[in-house]
Design goal:
This protein has about 60 residues and is mainly beta. It has a single domain (about 10-60), classed as SH3 type barrels, CATH 2.30.30. The protein has one helix and five strands, in the order ββββαβ. The protein has one helix spanning about 50-55; strands spanning about 10-15, 25-30, 30-35, 45, 55-60. The longest helix is centred in the C-terminal third of the chain and has 7 residues, at about 50-55. The two termini are about 20 Å apart.
Length: about 60
Amino acid sequence: MPMKLNVGDIVELRKTHPCGGNIFEIKRVGMDFRILCKKCDKQLWIDRPTLEKRIKKIVETKEEN
């Protein structure tokens, strides 16, 4: 069963971005995710299975209405 992830959630990943940051904000959800590095503001596209494996913890959750 897929993880419950919403637009606006802040997640910490196991792998760091080349800039050194590992905190990302989810900008788009679906089969592919668009995530934003909070350190350098670079946007990345990543598929759901890869993202779910890399998530260390969910730092902040935005409730979906």
